[in-house]
Fold these 2 entries.
Entry 1:
Amino acid sequence: MTRSNPPRRVAVTGASLLTPVGNSLTSAWAALVAGQSGVGPITKFDPTGHKTAIAGELKDFNPENYLNKKATKRFDLFIQYSVVAAKMALSDSGLNPDAELTEKMGCIMGCGLGGLSTIETNHEVLLKRGPDRISPFFIPMMIGNMGPGQVAIELGLKGPNFLVTTACSAATHAIGWAFQLIRDQGYPAMLTGGAEAVITPLAIAGFNALNALSTRNHDPAGASRPFDKDRDGFVISEGAGLMVLEEWEHAVTRGAEIYAEVAGFGASCDAYHMTAPPENGQGAVLAMRAALDDAAATDLSLADIGYINAHGTSTGLNDLIETRAIKAVFGRQAEKLAISSTKSMTGHLLGAAGGVEGVITALTLKKGLIPPTINLDTPDPECDLDYVPKVARRANLTAAMSNSFGFGGTNGCLIFKAHSC
């Protein structure tokens, strides 16, 4: 492939959401704009003894609507989510890849932890029943790249296929690199986003050991409260968010419905601490500025950004530092921005968060409706921007930004442009 000059435009032509607030694009979006929480008591295991007993679980997920029974037994849950969401996104796009297209179309996904439940189950088998009783599917069920790998096998996609494992920035980075492969190297289309399924005893215990999770067990729906003074940690959740990215002319020629245009991508590293951001938010600032610089090629400027889907985890440090970073990047315009954290409703999908929130950002532009930040009852005095509290808001937007920041100081930022602009 040769670098295009000028760069190609990239359209979002299909999308899917598997989230605690809904297992389809339609149901999840309706719940989000209605301000509904998907957080509840943990049912996947008995959380007795854990400080946290709440999570954002998928409800009524039936993989057999998309996969045969044999596949469901051989796929870890994160792989099931990956394949089901990929099929939903491809169907939504109306794209029917022929043999020529499948040779170039790829799948690039993000995932933070891979098949942790498979690891826990097989470790228990090893201790109780011995090494000869480990499943022959243990390794291919557990390794993270089997998410996009199984998507490719199911759909026959022979283009670039890899997994990004940059913690909570993973899916945002995956979308960014898929975008660049289309824009700069001439690939016609990509499936991209993220999936995660780690509501497990070990994950809950591990994040509790970091004091990272909310322990608001008496009020699950109110536990994820980004930018609120009484926030006490994030709520772990599961699911997937995928999109079909397509070279603009290819999409227009076939008459595809276009949700939005991907206009820019930026990435950076804090180079500071393994779990905490620097007080000035420099890494986040660098990622946002890099995305804005990248988007300049589509004639977008800082003044065109009207909405930010914030990383907004409901942790003390993230919400404060992200607020500072937004102010540093946007200056006085920060006061005019609409900002919301949809994690207040979905919880935090870890490596899949950027995929879900990228889809939400594209839908926000398409529908002219900004999902709210729920549970913002007592705003933190140091988080003093407009976080669209509690109620969705109509808005005619030109462009929007989606932020993701992860452990290890890894940061990602995407900019989407409204189709009509």
Entry 2:
Amino acid sequence: MRLFFLLSVVFSLSCTTKNTTEQSIAAYRVTQNITYNNINVNLVIDKPALNEVDVLLVFHGTILYDFNLNTAANTALDKFKSILDRDDMMIVSVAYPQENILLGDSIIQCEAALLWLKNNASQELGITVNKIFLAGHSQGGYMVTRLNTMHQTNGVIANAPGPLNLVYRCQLEENSQIQPSAVCTNLKDEYGITSTNPNAYFQRSLLNFTNGFKSDILFVQGLNDSPIQMYLWPTFKQDVISCSSCQNRQFVEISGGEHVSLFESLTAKTEFNNFINNH
């Protein structure tokens, strides 16, 4: 009887180990709510059939309403996956909130996602996370650039990051030179107009985060992007180049390219993959 019991325990442990191993090796895409330091955020996790992976953590661009967050996160994941020349990386897309939030405040959800990936993901997902890369498009590029001033990773890619200067952008809206946006409306409600409190606007601008990059970073910019982006791009580029406290910075500018150049230009896609494969 004792022998039967011991054999049953061994068999049970064997089955549990086998099931856990099979689960960790299986490929899947799931949406998972994670918590780190009491900050909650939804992640879309696309995992290959491996139990040891490098990870690309991606960030979507601007949306108006948070009910579109999961769609935006899945779209961003699909876009980055479509240009990635490796099928052995796990891609995690962050559904960071934007509705009724001042631009930049959702950096706390973005940071929580990164720190969860660094510190908790291996145990919670039953896998081994090796290298971690960040990639973002538009406002997602803004987020990964800011995160690069906060935490070290294996590398960062930012496509058409912005907004670069909210003072300039929101002043154009105040003067009715461009259509109003939720971003500037929320800032105006909080701080007043740009001429009254320009520093509050600038502190949230990407031009305020051009120093202290902790990891190598690749910027991709189409040179036929919006006039607002291109008016400020040379200043942003020069500030980044002038940084004396940054890891390596690389710029890929696409002649004739528009806002989504990373996903449309063969040159940009090649540089994107070279950057990841060389790090």
